[in-house]
Amino acid sequence: MREKVGTIKGTGSMASKQDSSIAQTGWRLVTMALLLASGVGVAALLLLLLMKLWPGLAGINAGFFILGAALALSIALLAPKLEAFAPDARKLGAPPFFRGLALSIDTISAAFVFGLVGAVFAWGQDGLAFVLGLGAGYLLLQLLIAPRLPCFKATSIPAFFAERYGGLAPRIFSSAIVVVSMAALLVAQLLAAGLIGARLLGLEFQVAVFIGAVALLLCFLLRQMAVTAWVRGILFLFLLAAFLAPLITLALQKYGLPVPQIAYGKALWQIQNLEESLLEQELADPVFMKPMLTSFLTLSPLNFFGIVVGLAAGLASLPSVLSRHMLIGPVRQARWSTVWALLVAGLLLAALPACAAFTKLSLYASIAEGMKLVDLPAWIFAYGKLGLVQICGQVATDAATVARACAGVPDGNGMLRLQDLTLHTDMIVLAMPEITGLSHWFTGFITSALLATALAAANGPLLTIVQTFVGDAQSEGHPAPISTWLAPRAIAALAVAATAFAATTRPGSILDVATWAFTLSAAGLFPALVFGLWWKRANAWGACAAMLFGFAICLCYLVATRFFAVSFCETWGFLSNSGPMVVETFNELKQAWMATEPGAAKGAVWATLDGHAQTMANWWGVPNLAAAPLALPVGFIAILAVSLATSAGAGDRS
Question: Which of 331, 444, 508, 616 is the most buried (most CB within 10 A)?
C-alpha cells in the first residue's frame, strides 16, 4: 500500500512548529469564512429591507439574481487567496466538518435540490428513491472508498488508475468516462442556473443559460485551480438556511411545529384527505391522480432499487467528489469528512420531501376550495411563460390562452380540475413560496442560494474536466504541451460552451440529466475503482474491460432510449414490457407519420410518436434512470473474469 498522502515527517520540534502554523492558518481561514458569511448576511438583509419598503419594485428579482451570482463569484475569488495564504491548506485540507459541508454541496448541489423535490411532488413515495440513493452513496463512500483512496498519491481519477493499474490504457478509458459524466453533470447545473435566471430576470431560457455559463466561466477564471473547502462549506450553510427558513415558517403556520421533518408526516395525512375530497367533488380523475402515500405507482420495485443503486454507486465514484475530497489529505480526514457530510446532508435530504408535501398540500387545498379558470393565481402564468405549466393541454401563458384551451374540454364547469393542470417537476422548488402563499422574499432567498450553489457546484465538474487534460501534467512537474496559463482556460471555455449549448436544447429534466451523470460514473468507474482498492489481483486488462463494457452498455442505453426511442422500439421492442395496446398505438402513430406529407404537420406527428416511444423504450421495463443494474453487473463480471484470465502484471501495484 502506498504511503499516506499528507504524512508530516520531521523531528518533534519541527512538527510542533508546523502544528502551530497550521493552527494559526486555521483561525485565519475561519475568520475569512465568517467575514464572507457576514457580508452575505448584510447583503441579504439590505435586499429584504428594500423589498419591505418597496414591495412592487420591478428590479428586486434582478437584485436576488445578482446576490446569488455575487456569492458564487466571492467564493471563487477567495479560494485561490486562501490556498496562497495557507500553503498547507491544499495538502492537509480543511477540518473534516468543513470538508463534509463542501462534500455535501458538491454532491447534492442545486440540480438535485430541484430534482428531488419535483420527484417527490410528482411521484409521491416513489420519488424517495433519489433521496435514499444519495444517502446510500455517502455510506458507500465512507465504507469502500475513503479507507483506501487517500493512500494513493494521484491528484485525479485518471492518475489514480494509471498509478494503480499502470500503463496508458486505464488512464485513457477513465479519462473518457470522466469527461462524459462530468459534462452531463455540468449540463444539469446549467439547466438549474438557466431556470433561475429565466424566472428572476424574465429572459428566454436559452439566454439565461448563456448568462449562467458566462458567470460559471468567470468563477472558474477567478478560482483558478484552487479546491479549498472552507468557503464552499459556508455556502452549504447558506443553502440550508435558505431552504429551511420557509419550511419552518410553513410548519409553524400549519401545525405549530418548528421542525418541518416532523410536520411532513402530518401533511401527508392531510394530503390523503384532500385526495379523497377532490375525487368526491369530481375535481380529480382517479386515473390521473397518484395518491402520495401509495408506493410503486410510477416505479416498480426493481426500478426503485435501480435508481438507488445507480445514485449510490455514482456518488461513491463521482470524479469531481473523489478528486476534491478523497485524494486530498490523510485517510482520517477523508473518513470523517464523509461522516459529517452524511449528517449535514441528511438535514437537507430529510427536508426535501417536506417541501414537496407542503407544496402539494397547498395546491390541492386551493383546487378543493374551488379555483376558477378566470381567476387563476399569478404564479401559474409566471411559470407558464417559461413553458413549465400547462392547463387543458396548452401552455398557460395568459388567461385568454387558458380560456381557449379549456373551452372544448368535456365536463368543464369553469373550475380548475387536477387532471387539467400539469406542472413541470423543475419548477416546484422555485414556486413553493408562491404556491404556499409565503412572502416573495422567500422566493428570492431560495433562488439566490440555489444560483450560488449551482455555479459553485458546477465548478467541480468543470475543474475535473480541466484536470483530466492538464492537471496531472502540471501537478507531476511535466512540461505541458502548451502554455500552462492558456491550457486550463481554453479547455474550460470549450467545455462551458459545449455544455451550455447542450443545456439550451433541454435534453431532459434537471433530475434526469443529473441522474444520468451519476449513472454513467457508476457504470464506468465503480467496478474498476472498488476492485482496484480492495483486490490486489485486479489488473489493467480487467479494469479496461470493466470500464469499456459497463460504460458502453449504460451510455448506449441512455442515448438510445432518450434520443432514438423510435428506432430503439423497432429494434428491441420484443424486450419491452409494453402491453398490446401500447404497441398498437405505436404502430398507428408510425403509420400516421409515414402517411403525412413533409411539413409542420409531419413534425408534430413525429413529436407525438417520439414521446410515445420514450414511454415504451426499455429492456424488461427498466427506464434509463434505473439503468445501473444493467451495466454494473457486466463491469464486475468483466474485471473479475479478465483479471483471473490474464497475468497479474500491473494489478499488484496496490
Answer: 444
Strand partners, 423: 389
Q: Find cell 398490446 and name the residue.
A: 580
Distance from C-alpha of 98 to C-alpha of 94, rounded to nearest angstrom: 6
DSSP string, 68-106: HHHHHHHHHHHHHHHHHH-TTHHHH-S-HHHHHHHHHHH
- CATH hierarchy code of domain 17-366+430-475+488-561: 1.20.1730.10
Lateral strand order in the sheet of 394-395: 394-395, 389-391, 421-423
Instruction: Enter the DSSP assignment of 415.
Output: B
Amino acid identity for residue 416 in this structure = L
The Cα 382–Cα 384 span in angstroms is 5
Answer with the residue of higher pLDDT: 40 or 265.
265
User: Is there a contact between 465 and 183 (Cβ–Cβ < 8 Å)?
Assistant: yes
State whether the Cα torsion 440-445-449-451 is positive or negative: positive
Q: Is the pLDDT of residue 60 over 80?
A: no
Instruction: Give the pLDDT score at 214.
Output: 95
549 membership: H or E segment, kind and range: helix 540-563
**Residue found under cell 449510490:** 312
Q: Which three cell numbers stand for residue 616?
A: 415504451
394-395 vs 421-423, strand pairing mode: unpaired
* Three-state DSSP class for residue 430: helix
Q: Say what the pTM is.
A: 0.89
The residue among 457, 429, 431, 453 whose CA lies nearest residue 355 is 429
Instruction: Name the residue among 264, 16, 252 with its Cα closest to residue 131.
Output: 264
Reported as a single tens digit per residue, the pLDDT across 534-589 is: 999 999 999 999 999 999 999 999 999 999 999 999 999 999 998 899 999 999 99
Question: What per-residue confidence (pLDDT) applies to 62?
Answer: 79
Residue that has been written with the C-alpha cell 466571492 in this structure: 74
Residue-level pLDDT at 409? 80
Cβ contacts of 635 within 8 Å, gap of 6 or more: 523, 524, 526, 527, 528, 546, 547, 549, 550
3-state secondary structure of 636: helix
Q: What is the pLDDT of residues 586-627, one digit of tens each?
A: 999 999 999 988 888 888 899 999 999 999 999 999 999 999
* Cell numbers for 131: 433521496
For residues 554, 176, 195, 43, the Cα torsion angle rounded to the nearest 10 degrees is: 130
C-alpha cell at 420: 387539467
Three-state SS at 579: coil
